[in-house]
């Protein structure tokens, strides 16, 4: 018998003769076994064993199978078109799938990138956000140490912030000189919260301290008043001295201030809000009261020693003024502003 390549009727796989079983053939793919019934030219008839014996199969289970021959041109063309369509569809599906994965990956990466970017922005914003500057360390001059020691009986480093907060009134005369005894000293008057006198008002206590040997005046002892910032409870402060910007920083409770040798503009620069002051006592030689209008809450004004003062018309800007004292202003002759002031 001449063997040609046959196709399995079940799966279209290749059917070959079984050398161990003459007259039988087996499909290489699905392993279906066939019986070669007869040969007629190049044609073969196969019987399908299946899972049963040949005798159990109905007659139509046997079919005539022709060897593989070339398909008609029209059939080949149809199959080729179908194959191309299948390939195109498969490629298109693959492209869509890959594109979807890429988009998903980009979206995920974008979210992560966005999150990182957002985090960076937040971190940058936090880093850029202005932080509260740490408080400057308090430097106690030798004179201010003597003041605290005289009030509390302890050095500043032994007095708590709460105790310092109780100091409400402080008047300091740094440089006094008794010409009869040639004594040079300073004087301190103070009042503490809760310390009341017989009249029910805050008790004011006074003490004096000698200047160290070799000092001619108290200015040498009180060369730095920046430690006043630590006395945050102060309501009245009177210094027969001058101050610098920053010395009174943070004294929000301060209402009455007495200073010397600085102008109204310089006084205003000492406090966070000039309008917080209700009382001002100062000694400064000037020709006018220019700048006094910054103290919008002023109720009491004392001006000591201004030889050149001739113009006081700016007093009219102090709408809340109730008490005015002007000492030693020999060249002041025009008092017409008083007729325009109320109160």
- Percentage of β-strand residues: 15-25%
How are the strands of the biggest sheet laid out side by side?
9-8-7-10-11-12-13-14
Largest sheet composition: 8 strands, mixed
In CATH, the topology of the largest domain is named: Leucine-rich repeat, LRR (right-handed beta-alpha superhelix)
Q: How many individual β-strands? A: 14
- Poorly predicted ranges: 50-72, 86-93, 95-103, 111-128
Question: What is the level 1 CATH name of the largest domain?
Answer: Alpha Beta
Overall average residue pLDDT: 76
Structure description:
It comes from [Clostridium] asparagiforme DSM 15981. The chain crosses the membrane at residues 86-105. This is Leucine Rich Repeat protein. This protein has 343 residues and is α/β, with parallel strands linked by helices. Helix content is 22%, strand content 23%. The chain folds into three domains: 6-65; 71-104; 142-340, Leucine-rich repeat, LRR (right-handed beta-alpha superhelix), CATH 3.80.10. It has four helices and 14 strands. An eight-stranded mixed sheet has the order 9-8-7-10-11-12-13-14. The chain has a six-stranded antiparallel sheet with strand order 1-2-3-4-5-6, with no helix packed on it.
